[in-house]
UniProtKB/TrEMBL annotation:
Its main location: membrane. This is Glycerol uptake facilitator (Major Intrinsic Protein Family). One of its GO terms (molecular function) is channel activity. The chain crosses the membrane at residues 7-27, 33-54, 84-105, 125-143, 186-215. It is found in: Membrane. InterPro entries: Aquaporin-like (IPR023271), Aquaporin_transptr (IPR034294), MIP (IPR000425), MIP_CS (IPR022357). PANTHER family: AQUAPORIN NIP1-1-RELATED, AQUAPORIN NIP2-1.
Length: 219
């Protein structure tokens, strides 16, 4: 793997978190306490950002921007295992930098931790399994049947999953960690992060067992 690929993963994940956190701050500021409106704005902005970064950086690094996706590709034999840890590290670093950049843009304290306490419980943990499995479903289904639609599929899926999952679809360990360092609309309490990540990883292994069979090329 090249430095250009690692930088693409870093940059793409940073822009993803700028989309998530920045739009969350703007939405909360402009919605006057209307949580539904704020969530709608947050979801649309995140979906648009995903379409943009996957389209532009996909040819460079594969546009994972997500340790769960990197692990899933490695399990399929489509990403070298020696590059998994470096990809994950630059994704996490990019996510945190994206959060800090969002804080600076909106004139907020750069260093924060989240006080958001409601992102926990078995229902939300199960939600993260569904959210992550669904993300892998559209990625690998898109690659199998119509690869050029993957950026749109991922953007549309996450936009919708913000609304139909109780956890608002983190579906990404790097995003989950980075969102622990913002006490804004998008935040998650640091102590609640490990269970979200565990559920996301469980979803990867469920997906590996089911999606490879489902989307196996015909003989």
């Amino acid at each position: 793997m090249s430095a250009r690929q690692y930088f693409a993963e870093f940059l793409g994940t940073a822009f993803l978190l700028i989309g998530v956190v920045g739009s969350g701050i703007m939405a909360q500021t402009l919605s006057d306490g209307n949580i539904a409106l704020a969530l709608l704005a947050n979801a649309i902005a995140t979906g648009c950002m995903l379409y943009a970064i996957i389209t532009t950086l996909g040819p460079v690094s594969g546009a994972h921007f997500n340790p769960a996706v990197t692990l899933a590709f490695a399990l399929r034999g489509e990403h070298p295992w020696r590059a998994v840890a470096p990809y994950v590290l630059v994704q996490i670093a990019g996510g945190v930098i994206g959060v800090w950049a969002s804080h600076y843009m909106f004139d907020l304290p750069i260093l924060q931790t989240s006080g958001t306490l409601h992102r926990t419980g078995s229902h939300q943990w199960f939600s993260e399994i569904i959210a992550t499995l669904g993300l892998l479903f559209v990625i690998f289904g898109g690659i199998r049947h119509k690869p050029d639609t993957v950026p749109a599929l991922v953007g549309l899926y996450i936009t919708g999953a913000y609304w139909y999952t109780s956890s608002t679809s983190f579906a990404n360990p790097a995003v989950t960690i980075a969102r622990g360092f913002t006490d804004t609309f998008a935040g998650i309490y640091l102590a609640h992060i490990p269970m979200f990540i565990l559920m996301q990883i469980i979803a990867v292994f469920i997906g590996h067992l089911t999606l490879n069979w489902l989307f196996k090329p015909e003989e």
